[in-house]
């Protein structure tokens, strides 16, 4: 339902809660359409508050009765909550409400998924379960009783009494309501256990629908590895007797860190070699770690208000990235993260949806679970660690956990810990949290008589509501190479604090070749005039794996942009440089696969826009095709050699070594397919015993225009596995010819297995279209129309997923006027829908404002 006038909430308006909660008892009488929720809550006046007005949040529920200290009361109920006269002292509030989980298609609050009850409360879903002060700075101990006779009935904390048709739970750790969870239904568990560093035995379970038991073992190992890692690396021990994970089919995002009861999108926990790709395994491992790490960074220490979301998300993403780097390969993880950062966060930061890592205002908080808050938030943590050094980092984290355990905190609290440990003033660093936009870092150089000088200049373009930007502190890791490849200056840290700043290196025998921004030490766009020869040199010689990859990427981008803009032919020097890199058996196969990856269509559109051009999606597609063709020709023998040499012969393991080998052979297979018309791909498809190889082969066959039979066979084989069928939907769209992509996606929406009620399926189909620029931005506008049609249909059912997918349009101002008006027409059509959700209205409104 559309609110009369959606309110903008401002950080500066924060006031402490009027009432604190001393304890919560909840009883759920489960029923698919009429669940009763009985609450008994002890409220006490907050000494820090200036008012005693009593309001509770509550939406989409019927109040049956309310009592204060046992006497009936009649609160004033509105669509968003209630207010009531209350005594001027501690009192007990009791309420009974009725809610309808079956009608809850928004998947927020208590809802049904495949016949099972489950909840999602972050950010503000608890208010759809009962009347409550639904804000993260109200923390309380919860006791929960679930009645309804479901075979399995779970909530947060430790189990209490279990009896005929009921189960009780007690969570001893005070928590905000957003961490509440309940799951009930016919579920089976994959059990495990973990002994903590102080010797406590913790029972672990992954709960799934019957039939999915065989897909839990990997997740369980990832969970144990995460628990171990957080003890070893951060001294953080788990704090309950039990840790449950539940897999749910219908879920708006990846997973949720509810205390002791993590709820996962089944795509982010269920794994088997036959049904999951190597990338799926890596992602599952990372998400399990991420949610587990939230137990300390998020749950024990939570956010004071939703503006502080990056306090838990940035830090937890940073921690999960460290975990993956430790378990797998640090350089490979860093490269993958930077690819994702540029694809999602730079795109966001340079368009109408740009916002600070800590936003200053919002209409719908769900719209701020963004790449900026998460991924740029994690980059800020990484920069902070770089600036203070590893020792101070460890001390600061220990102080953070000691000082703030059990509290709801702010970014100021976080930064103060670092200031106290280091004595350093972090006021300038804080700008990174407060100002949106990606800084442009440009550099020129001079060499004279043994002295080499780098002149840096930083500039951050205006973003919505922030026309002027002040200089930030930018940690620049740098090394210098001699022209024989020797490193004459090893990696060192330059701290840039001014708008313009120069750094000198003396005693150099000759002009060096700089390797700037090693490890991608700051989330900036670096511009530097460099010749392709120099890039090829760094691709061959840089000792920093990230910058080695980056040099290859810059070379590819330069070559592609030249083709797109000037109609140049593929640069043979680039092809030869990447061939030499690919043949270098001293390099990790996973690294080589990444270095053979080409800039994405969107990456190239960004690059063209950045340099004042108007990207033509079809021209970008054509240039990429031409490079792939030319490369397949030049590298045919190399591809065949790599394909043969790196076949995995041992039994399947999703570890870094095997995944890297498969990534390289599948990259080679794509090249070979362009030469043999798909024969090798067909052979791999027929022989594949794991999804990584099966899916890669299917992609090659589709690319070669001979995917028809395999598409049918794949469906026959996997029709009963929803997660695999999601892949089937998206692959067909992703590999469609640009002129046909919208048609293919449109036809798939008519397939009996398509349902917009399942966010995974919706994303697999329409999200795949939005993620295929040449198809989505086809000059006919049919991609835009199809997506808008479906967003309009989905919005009344699921505002969150609808709003999130509106970001497909965020780049519209980059394109030509014809495309802009086609997009604008669709955005206006969406925004004119009579009952548009607050979520979607905010997103489209912000996009249109640009
Ligand atoms: N904290 C949740 C995300 C909640 C999203 C609400 N719209 C998952 C995570 O970041 O771990
Ligand atoms: Zn998180």
CATH superfamily of the largest domain: Peptidase M1, alanyl aminopeptidase, C-terminal domain
- SS summary, helix count: 27
Distance between the termini: 27 Å
Specify the CATH architecture of the largest domain: Alpha Horseshoe
Average pLDDT reading: 98
As an assembly, this protein is single chain
How many strands, which pairing sense, and closed or not: the largest β-sheet? Answer: 8 strands, mixed
Structure class: alpha+beta
Give a count of the beta strands, DSSP E runs of length 2 or more.
31
Relative helix content? 40-55%
Give me the Rg, rounded: 27 Å
Bound molecules: (3S)-3,7-diaminoheptanoic acid, zinc ion
Taking strands numbered 1, 2, ... along the chain, how are they ordered across the largest sheet? 6-5-9-3-2-12-15-14
Report the uncertain regions. none
Shape: globular
What is the domain total for the residues? Answer: 4
CATH C-level name of the largest domain? Mainly Alpha
- Beta-strand share of residues: 15-25%
CATH topology of the largest domain: Zincin-like fold
How would you summarize the topology of this molecule?
Elements: E1 9-10, E2 19-29, E3 35-45, E4 55-57, E5 62-68, E6 71-72, E7 76-77, E8 81-83, E9 91-99, E10 109-113, E11 116-120, E12 140-147, E13 152-155, E14 158-163, E15 166-175, E16 182-185, E17 188-195, E18 201-208, H1 217-234, E19 242-248, E20 255-256, E21 261-265, H2 278-293, E22 302-303, H3 309-327, H4 330-349, E23 361-362, H5 371-388, H6 390-404, E24 408-409, H7 411-422, H8 427-434, E25 440-448, E26 451-459, E27 474-481, E28 487-496, E29 500-505, E30 513-516, E31 525-527, H9 532-541, H10 545-566, H11 572-583, H12 589-596, H13 601-610, H14 617-634, H15 636-645, H16 656-676, H17 679-687, H18 691-703, H19 708-718, H20 722-734, H21 738-749, H22 759-770, H23 773-776, H24 782-794, H25 799-805, H26 817-831, H27 838-849
Helix pairs in contact: 1-2, 2-3, 3-4, 3-5, 4-5, 4-10, 5-6, 6-7, 9-10, 9-11, 10-12, 10-14, 12-16, 14-16, 15-16, 16-18, 17-18, 19-20, 20-21, 20-22, 21-22, 24-26, 25-27, 26-27
(3S)-3,7-diaminoheptanoic acid (B3K) binds next to strand 20 and helix 2.
